Input
Amino acid sequence: MNTLEKKVNYQILMRGAYSDYVLINRNTSYCPYVVCYGFNDEDYTWAQGHYYESLSAAKVDFYQRERDWLDGKIDYLTEDMDLGAE
Output
């Protein structure tokens, strides 16, 4: 499938607010929903993907990955801070 066909057939459903994750619908009969990491908007390719039969399963994975990414950033930013815990 060329880039133009991908842009016509693939639907971007969600983009990560904090991360590089994108949830797409490939509109295929087998595992149409993909949680993509490293999604390229120019040619509709991605570095890694997790494939799902159902939208609900894909959304759960997407939100968990988004949360985990954000948790990792918060841990990194606060690890050297004195938050007053005694």
